[in-house]
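Private note to self, pasted from the team thread so I don't lose it. Backbone tokens:
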């Protein structure tokens, strides 16, 4: 078996113990006398072996304990050296601190049993108080270092566990922060797209019409619509900026739009869509407009707004119908528009609107559908349909 390379601190401890033992040996300072091996040189053998085990106390604690135990037993048959005994206590301590978990549990019990057995054995043999002193000394050089090592190891493991929990908590907090940032960015992107795209689409379409038609009246009407949408878009941008402010003395942001504002939204979109041959109709079949959670109202409003924007960009001339309805536990929104190409000016689209509507519905655990359908009269229509669950805990959603 190849032993690992000793740690430099352990080598220093071993060298110090060996030098100290040699000094005691040179002055003739022994622990006992008149043993089996009374020669002076015999004391150096356990001392040298024990110093070698001290060098392995951290890298091979089990080997160091086994060989060190044999060395301390052999030291009892010589005149004995105090440095050998002290190094053995450190080997026992290191075996518990640096050994395997099983060894760390086993060594204190083993040394405790050895201490008790030694005390009882000498009491039976000598039958005097000196046996108790031998038992105390045995416990001091074996059981006490093992218990001390167990206490130190438990404290270290508790500190490591606390450090690991702190690192895991910090990691989870960072993950939550990153997810919150991503969610907030997605929400900001949806708000920015839904609030501004409608106005910019109207501006793009009417500016194209103004540039392509050499009619003063049409140009005047287009410029009027452009100005109205520019002002409205600027107001929406200011509201979005207000939402992003940190409240450091700036004005409070305006309230989020609700379904009560759908009439104004449809009226404004109808004015924008008139040159494109679109007629907008709002059909609210709800019995009562009260009692909806704010997140549901905001999502429904944005879905209608984005659907009208898409109709303004792409729909063929005809009727665009916005229908609202409410069933027990759900609010549903349906927007249908003519499906096909048109000859007038159009505005480019990126597809982000459909993604944003789908995300809004998903956040409320609802159902979203968008695509071409055929109505009862056989005409092809583009339909957007969203079903938004209405629950009490929706008030807590953001």
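Design output:
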């Amino acid at each position: 078996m190849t032993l690992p390379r000793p740690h430099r601190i352990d080598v220093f401890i071993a060298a110090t113990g060996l030098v100290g033992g040699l000094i005691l040996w040179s002055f003739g300072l022994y622990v006992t006398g008149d043993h089996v091996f009374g020669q002076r040189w015999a004391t150096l053998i356990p001392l040298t072996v024990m110093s070698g085990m001290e060098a392995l106390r951290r890298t091979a604690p089990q080997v160091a304990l086994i060989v060190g135990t044999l060395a301390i037993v052999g030291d009892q048959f010589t005149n004995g050296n105090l440095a050998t005994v002290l190094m053995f206590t450190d080997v026992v301590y290191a075996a518990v601190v640096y050994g395997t978990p099983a060894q760390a549990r086993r060594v204190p019990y083993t040394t405790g049993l050895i201490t008790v057995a030694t005390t009882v054995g000498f009491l039976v043999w000598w039958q005097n108080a000196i046996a108790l002193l031998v038992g105390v000394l045995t416990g001091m050089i074996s059981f006490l270092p093992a218990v001390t090592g167990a206490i130190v190891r438990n404290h270290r493991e508790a500190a490591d566990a606390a450090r690991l929990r702190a690192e895991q908590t910090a990691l989870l907090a960072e993950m939550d922060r990153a997810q919150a940032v991503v969610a907030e960015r997605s929400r900001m992107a949806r708000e920015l797209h839904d609030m501004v795209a409608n106005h910019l689409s109207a501006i793009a379409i009417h500016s194209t019409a103004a540039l392509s038609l050499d009619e003063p009246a049409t140009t005047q009407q287009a410029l009027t619509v452009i100005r109205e949408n520019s002002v409205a878009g600027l107001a929406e941008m200011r509201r979005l900026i207000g939402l992003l402010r940190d409240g450091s003395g700036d004005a409070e942001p305006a309230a989020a739009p609700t379904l009560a504002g759908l009439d104004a939204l449809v009226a404004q979109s109808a004015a924008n869509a008139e040159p494109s041959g679109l007629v907008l109709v709002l059909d609210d079949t709800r019995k009562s407009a009260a009692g909806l959670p704010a997140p549901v109202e905001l999502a429904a409003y944005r879905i209608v707004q984005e659907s009208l924007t898409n109709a303004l960009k792409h729909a063929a001339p005809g009727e665009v119908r916005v229908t609202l309805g409410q069933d027990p536990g759900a609010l549903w929104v349906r927007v249908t528009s003519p499906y096909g190409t048109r000859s007038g000016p159009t505005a480019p689209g990126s597809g982000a609107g459909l993604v944003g509507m789908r995300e809004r519905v998903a956040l409320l655990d609802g159902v979203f559908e968008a695509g071409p359908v055929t109505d009862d009269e056989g005409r092809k229509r583009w339909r957007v349909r969203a079903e938004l669950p209405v629950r009490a805990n929706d008030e807590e959603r953001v």
